[in-house]
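User: Last request for today: this protein with NAP, please.
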Amino acid sequence: MTQKEFAGRTALVTGGSRGIGRAICVRLARAGAWVAVNYAANPDAAAETLELITAEGGSGGLFQADVSSFEATGAMYDAIEAERGTVDLLVTNAGIASFDDNADMNADVWRQILSVNLDGTFHSVWRAKERMLAQEYGRIVCISSINGIAPSRIRRDRLIAYGTSKSAVISFARSCAMALGPAIRVNCVAPGLIDTDMTKDMSEEMRERIIASTPAGRTGKPEDVAELTYFLLSDAADFVTGQTYVTSGGLVTLP
Ligand SMILES: NC(=O)c1ccc[n+]([C@@H]2O[C@H](COP(=O)([O-])OP(=O)(O)OC[C@H]3O[C@@H](n4cnc5c(N)ncnc54)[C@H](OP(=O)(O)O)[C@@H]3O)[C@@H](O)[C@H]2O)c1
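Assistant: Here's the final one, the structure of the complex with NAP:
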């Protein structure tokens, strides 16, 4: 039997309890990683993720932490390290969005979105990097969004705070790739519309408009994002760092 890609590796997926994060947890477990499933407020959903990991023949643990808090994120790493040692593979996926009109956006909403999506990414990477550098191995994928590459032409009236946070994640990941190589590779994945709890309340009319502009002719599945994330973490992507890869069915294309 061939050795699994991530056998003996420890992975942390923030926001692993639902949606895209859950699919990434399962994908990394299938590749042999021990997976730390982070969640904020949904222990039952996180437990379901762990069941799916176990069903794949994998193993992992549940770790509650609000990643917008540096202290809580640090305590989560302490707990993972006590159980498993250094985190080798990190996916910063925890995120929130507001689909309110930009006109209704206020300073509180702005601060909340930036604190989870951007500060949470910073806290997770910053706490991981010293040990990754010390062991001269670390692989990081930050989940951004197509809204971090360009503002939506279809939803022009929304997502200012969200898009700003996701642009900043791309910039942060690029800078980290420069600062932390060669030991650590850092890349971004920028998904388009993916069917998860985050997007389930979108109107059918809006969904149809987005699909009509998408060459692939469909919305994305969490597994679409998980496959790309797996690839970027794997040795097959050993010469890839500081990059942003879009998985949007062609809705957004990079030069
Ligand atoms: N769905 C899309 O169309 C789409 C497109 C582009 C990018 N993305 C990005 O992909 C990522 C995952 O999105 P999704 O659609 O899977 O969202 P989702 O279904 O709403 O799940 C969000 C996940 O993030 C966790 N989370 C939220 N706030 C947190 C915090 N402060 N600390 C720790 N965990 C927190 C949630 O944990 P609990 O279960 O405990 O609440 C949950 O596991 C996000 O960064 C999102 O911006 C999504």
